[in-house]
Design a protein that fits this description.
By secondary structure, the chain is of the alpha/beta class. The strands form 2 sheets. Strands 5-4-6-7-8 form a 5-stranded parallel β-sheet, with helices on both faces. A 3-stranded antiparallel β-sheet has the order 1-3-2.
Amino acid sequence: MNDATDYCSIKEASQILGVSPKTIQLWVEKGSLRAWKTAGGHRRIIRESVNALIKARNPQSASNAGSGLPNLEQGMRVLIVEDEEALRRLYEFNVRQWANSIQVELAKDGFEALLRIGKTKPDVLITDLSMPGMDGFKMLRRLSELGELGSMLVIVITSYDSEAIQNLGSLPEGVHVFEKPAPFKSIRQLVVDGVAEKLALSR
């Protein structure tokens, strides 16, 4: 490769595709992106494969540029579980900004969430821990017993710190925890990487 316009770095590819450098490396390893190594051991991504991936992910990429969420035109399902109505609406508003095709459902406690999960099988679960009735701890333990957690990206947004969570019973493995107020930018990037990794592994 002599022409610098024919290839880009991992960082540049991650910016173009709206995912993390780690996800770009995963796509290269899985063959979703073509790359080569310099004499110094640095990966260079072939731009043609980047453009091909953009077209494959989203034929209408020009109208949806900047969403950063791969292949969501078929609709990603997100369930938000929060007992405070104002926060439910705030989370819903921010999640809907990610892409027009996202399907958002709301639940006010763990029991209602279990019913919705049984019917709709969400891709992403965003939940509080402190709720009346069935709280987030009980709900997640029940989902773990049912074997449902492996099919969802589970995100907890809570006012509890890590010590309080451990004292109150801990959480199943693989659950991502953010302290309130919700850091929506970080949560969005986590979802982007999670969806991208799922797509890469399915190719």
